[in-house]
Amino acid sequence: MPANLTPEYREAERIFREARSDDERLRALQEMLRTIPKHKGTDKMQADIKRRIAKIRQAREKKSGKKGFSYKVPKEGAGQVVLVGTPNVGKSHLLSSLTNAEPEIAPYPFTTHIPFPGMMPFEDIKIQLVDLPPFSPEHTENWLPEMVRAADAVMFVLDLAGFPLQDMEFILNLLDRVKLELVREPDPSLPFNIVQKRVLLVCNKIDRPGSPGNFEVLKEFYGDRFDMIAVSASEGTGLEDLRRAVFDMLHVIRIYPKEPGKHMDRGEPYSIPEGSNLLDFAKTVHKDFLDMKYARLWGPSAKFDGQTINRDQVLQDGDIVELHL
Taking a C-beta distance cutoff of 8 angstroms, is the pair 126, 119 a contact? Predict the structure, then answer.
């Protein structure tokens, strides 16, 4: 039986052949496995790809000396946002100020050794923030880019009282070498092996002498490229605006479920990506609702309260949906 390989598969195969690192090979193999046609004619090819993926993962575990250990943090809440930065820019202090987490905070470098998560409340939802060990010219953990790659978005924390332009260039160049780009909005036309993540520049220590001037310089250099906000973790300046900016960066909407026959109660909403339709929401609630008979809608998207809608109805933030099986 012919394999009938797709152009997407062949492109991934080309990237695999040209890859220079295990990370690049692994991503290419995963894309090959995703795009290969699934039928009997490709069974052996699929098995070979899976074998190669397993071999690379085993080699990485052996090299790290931590068999089976993973630095991945399971996602919770409306989205996962990682905090990146150089040593002593105030990432852990920000995490402590925005969440109930209690990371170790000290005035010396490398206080954070492993990912440290916390849940940041915003209105009626929570967003997961993950403080990462620092990116540093002296030592950067080789798994840090993968943590950034796996996250939904990035808070790039800069020290306005230090050398923010220098820190910016160092981390951007480091991520660029592993085909990871921080952007205001991702470009969907890029090849799969170049990953783009939305980023917010969080310019910390605005309360320090000289910091307002450094913030203006940053805006001059990067204001057209990135969204940025000035805060002070120690004084609490700008933290409420930061919560809103992080929520906006995630591009999610909040949908409130309503039980049939009961009064509307804006309890805990479901968070789903912007542009999602009714069927996307139904899948998020429970797979049984994929067979729903109909649904009713209240809120910003509704033409009138209790409107009956079809499966491809695009939802908006704040909509209330009643699903009927």
Answer: yes
**For residue 157, what are the β-bridge partners?**
202
User: How many residues in the chain?
Assistant: 325
What is the CATH architecture of 80-250?
A: 3-Layer(aba) Sandwich (3.40)
* C-alpha span between 303 and 224 (Å, rounded): 38
- For 8, 268, 291, 310, 323, the CA distances from 307, given in Å and listed in that order, are 41, 22, 19, 10, 12
User: Which ranges in the chain are annotated with CATH 3.40.50.300?
Assistant: 80-250
C-alpha closest to that of 211 among 236, 232, 228: 232
- Alpha carbon distance 41, 241 (integer Å): 55
253-324: which CATH architecture? Roll (3.10)
**Along the 325 residues of the chain, how does pLDDT read in single tens digits?**
566 788 888 888 889 888 888 878 888 898 888 888 888 788 888 889 988 888 887 776 666 555 444 578 889 999 999 999 999 999 999 999 999 877 655 554 455 568 889 999 999 999 999 999 999 888 888 889 999 999 999 999 999 999 999 999 999 999 999 999 999 999 988 888 889 999 999 999 999 999 999 999 999 999 999 999 999 999 999 999 999 999 999 999 999 998 888 887 777 899 999 999 999 999 998 888 888 888 999 999 999 999 999 999 999 999 999 998 8
CB 246 within 8 A of CB 127: yes
Establish how many alpha carbons lie within 13 A of residue 242's alpha carbon, considering only the half-sphere containing its beta carbon.
Answer: 28
How far is the C-alpha of 176 from the C-alpha of 124, rounded, in Å? 36
Domain with CATH 3.10.20.30 in the chain: 253-324
DSSP code, position 325? -
